[in-house]
Here is the input.
Amino acid sequence: MARDQDVPVDADAADNRIGLTGARFRFRPTTDQRRPAAPTPPFQVALRGYARQEVDDHLARTDEQIRRLHDALRDSEHRRARTEEHMALLESELADARSHRVGPTADERPEPGSVGHSLLRQAQRDAARIRAEAARDARLMLSDARAEITRRERTEPVRTAPVEQRPPHTQIDTPDRRPDTSGW
Here is the structure.
């Protein structure tokens, strides 16, 4: 077989033949053998085929890319397995929750009277909550009012007492009486 002639062969066999023999063939695959080919770098032609270092470098890069893709595939399969296990666990928890649920399910139709009863129960719960909040607010207001009364009772005698009987910190400066500054 001549080196530069067009030979229709199987594309995979052609790839293997190139790698094994190092010969340079121009292959013309038949129409059923054509497939989208990955872009291959153009190798420099050497005395007996392609430059060996370029081919070795390309194969090393391709092997590394294949290794990374295998690692990514393995990681994806592990994540998928963990996700499936988690999904099975959640489905079993959902089944348990459905079996322990109290009250009608979405598939069951409630009796006409039960809707009214449930609304009445909800209204009673809301009323009890509102009454409890109002009682708490009333207690707070009452305690605040008592504290205000106590505070005023303490300050009223000071306001009504003569200036001489007031404590020193509450005395007001008047023109005829000056504050005692000896302690300063």
